[in-house]
């Protein structure tokens, strides 16, 4: 009893403290909590998180961020494995910064972008970036993390070699730089138009630049990389006049013709070629600030200039920064958690931040954008998005958007439908960015995103078109083994590699299409695809107890090793993990795998067995940091796995696994992420799981319950409702759920549904140190 | 007397015959004479005429024409002089055709284009063009001229190797092909996206193609050639379904990534890369006709498709051909000549045809076009044109347009003003094509074209903007020695080569600006530029009697050879010819050169002296065929020279020279032209001179009179007036003018003015075997 009083007192004190803190945190004008201050953009910048620390706004087109190296994709024609570290341009361990470029993917496992690298320098002009080993050989500069600051919408660093303070902020389409020069030396801005991320020798296809006047430069760059035909247009404006400028070319110039009449190297305003670096000189006094507005457009330099004028009409760095921070706080306030654990808040709000970095807006302020057909299109009644890392993000990120970003998610689907209409394959995106399909990874998971939205009623898009697009995509016979899958019920390994992964993922995707069809009353489509969704059974080998590659003659592959990630019919995973990939029918899968008990043992083994390095050491997306036993959290295929105990009679085993993963795989610090953040998917897993639920099968309205790590959270829904989650008796030890109450009623199954959540309400977990073996019964 | 009766009878018979012929010639529906049948597009296709024989409409964007070879611009990094023969893709002496491409310059002395080469083949697929020496090594075919037909808007040839009859016609933006296959073999259409004119190794920057469905292909090609950043978009439609297709790539593919998942070589609808050839297979019966519509756009493939739908809604080759022919006859009827000399009619109407081949329309049917800034612009209230070969065409072609094509000429100027507004240099075009300035040749002769139109009152464009653009251009200090010219009154040879040619041409251009300023009442501009126009005097060396290169210290160049074309301060001409380049002030020039008598002797010598080959043998634009004595007619700088006697007291010496040039330098037959036709300038000289007058100084309203070779011509002016020219007592011997009557009054000076011409009227030359020494006195 006394104990209870003590506890109550503590609660009151905590609430009072929290209120105080709130007042302190409020963004005065908007009544928002300042959660931005808990966001640490450095998380994930070390090792393989592949996040970037630079300045951007939520879903912004511009990601203005430092690149610490720009090593080539290949050396002497051979892939350079070190390039993988630089998917986002920045590696925490590095000691030099090459410059600040305007486009970055967050957390991807392959890459592109890094457009328009800007570097301020002083003294003798160097146009070569130099090397980390010998920074003085080029324009790059040493820096140290102690002089670095990163927060939502803002990044700054001191460039030691030049004693220049570099600051950056952004709007959706404009990156704003501010450089404070602390020397009385000649000052240069380098614009390196050859620099890029995943930079092949011949990646630069064409560069076109015009120095329009002494403060304005426009142009575009076309690259042939992950995206084959990618053009990014820009307009760059300075707040001080250029006093001198020039360019160097590093390409062959097959024809120079009548251009020989000019000295094109200096102060010649028309610049074009494959490989170009430029410099702009300024006459600045010590401590004077040089500002640059750098606007992007997918359409034209005219579009970029219009974007600049609309989004940054003034030379007010602080205002742009303030607005960027405000934009972030608006998004971050969609979930308000209460915690006196700063690390928890940091992890949570950084996850929220990472989850809202993409897909990114991809259109001008006049709604024009470039489509897959390279024609200019106008987005009618939607915002066009790009950079769909769908093999990752269909799992939890888009389901999270259906809760927190319903309007954007609908627009993303409208963008996918537009993509499908423009696609010469008439296919929905697989992995698309910047008006290009890069075909990365497997499946056709757009259909999952679409089905999830349809089933959940978040459909501010043409649902008939959407379903047609799904069906059309799933019937594209020439795509990645689909002809075999359609004809034989599985992808035969001798016809098409990674055949089991493909069969399993197609089967899930087909189930998703069936769910959408059912919701829309399209019976024939439902029947076709619900039938296809059972195809997962065709690759199950009862003898070995694993999903196993099957050949076109119907026999299973010999010499099968379910532990090995390589050459076993799977992609970025082994059979041990991938055999569990039947998110749409765990019950059927459990039956197939020998029933409840055998299945539970299988899961237990997965989390506890030893997986030697050799089984995954050349799989870039899997690293030791992301592994627990043989369970791979650092990559996506198993993200639903910890929740599968819910389908057995041991849901408490999900609870401790989830808490273990939350605890071990998400940490603060630059090396806090255990694998690629994958454009927010890893973060979305964290957000869902830390709140106590997870969308095991997008396309279903059910969320599986786990074990929340957060004690108190309020989800502020766009529809005005709030959904409150409380974990009573929460502690690091109390990872088991004793009881769950939804709106005051005890839950008898380990699920809540989407409509319950969106209606607002109260979910209370009662936590305990010990598992409740009778929970949900 | 009897003789006279005989003559009268002959005249009557001739008139009767002519009337008969007229009826036969009439295009039934339009009351037009069928002058198209006199046009021989083969004229100029041999040697250095650089014309093309293919199908096009007047000023059409598409020039669909056979390319007989596509040899590289450079071999082992060194310029291949043979490439010069192929400026228009076709050489009459060749025995093979590589294929039919869609864009060609007419008569230029440097080149580009040759986009989208199509070749029909049968049998085994060959994707390599092969060589002339060994045609069987590739897809090219042998042909012979006896199976070839070329007429305005139509070209056909039998491709011997495949027994395919190839026919082509065109609208403004669409080339239409018709292939009749005479074998029962597998049939292919090759689309060679690497082929081009003046093809450097790395000219192809990017190619993007989509096979949209089984009859439609779209895409674009970007090249880096004479135009540095040139993209041409296309849409290609077949009248039969493609049954199979594929592509081969000849470029390095730095990154193939996830594309490895597909067989991209066959039936894969998305094609992109630097160097690509494609094939399309069809299932055709013997004698079946395969038709292709190939539409171009400067903006987008969407634009190309819209152009196709608008201009060729049906699959009716004959109708397109009929319309093309009609369009030509409408233009050709602007001057109706009467002659029973078929050769004369052939020369005259072929000259008219060549004069109306360019500049070419450069915008979509929705008036959108790509500007110099690579942005999409809309032509508001004008038709946008491109391909301005101004160093050539300012002389006589644009003046001819002010008479025959006033609306188009005004629109061409509107296009030049738009160019100037888009130019990062804020300069009017020098030699511009396809949204690029190629800077070919010297001067800033746009100002001449503009001034000529302003002075002649043909100003359906903003004259204030136009004059500002002229002034801005002429003051561009960093352009080609202008800073010296402005500061020192001449271009010093030690600072900038071809300095005399530049000084002389700038001086003329400046005079033209002054004339425009005067007409518009801008006194300050007039004063500035009339002063500059006297600069020609600064490079006259009284000692040698020649225009001579001056150095920056004010001394004349030593070791001066006025005969040599090379390294003497001139471009494409020697001092003997170029010293006469003061078209705006012949009187001042004559005075400078020692007065009437010495000047007349100078001119006489020019036409009679011997010029050894060594003085011009490496000057591509000058060949023996174009020379009379030391007078070079085959290139432009002397085009006004034969008329200069008009400023002496021996105008009759102009008359016989002009008739000699008309007779010797313009012939029928493929080798009929004595030099590059230069986008119609050579032809315009012929048209003017054969009618008896010539615009010595565009920007003046005066036309100098010569000696007409045509006996009877009617100019049908757009304003409804007609101007009739009659040469009485005309014959090959009667080259001298006895008397000239304008509207019944004897002319006392060897000039008529533009307004007189445009008012309609009657100009009668009385011809004689002997010079009238008292003419015009």
TrEMBL record, chains A, B:
Q: Name one GO cellular component term.
A: cytosol
Keyword annotations of the record = Calcium, Glycosidase, Hydrolase
Keyword Hydrolase recorded: yes
From which domain of life does this come?
Bacteria
Q: Which InterPro entries match?
A: 6-hairpin_glycosidase_sf, GH-type_carb-bd, GH92_a_mannosidase_put, GH92_N, Glyco_hydro_92, PNGase
Q: Which residues form the Glycosyl hydrolase family domain?
A: 304-768
| Class of the enzyme per the UniProt entry, highest EC level | hydrolase
Q: Name one GO molecular function term.
A: hydrolase activity, acting on glycosyl bonds
Protein EC:
3.2.1.-
Query: A Pfam family this protein belongs to?
Result: Glyco_hydro_92N
Put simply, this protein is called GH92 family glycosyl hydrolase
Organism, by scientific name, is Mariniflexile litorale
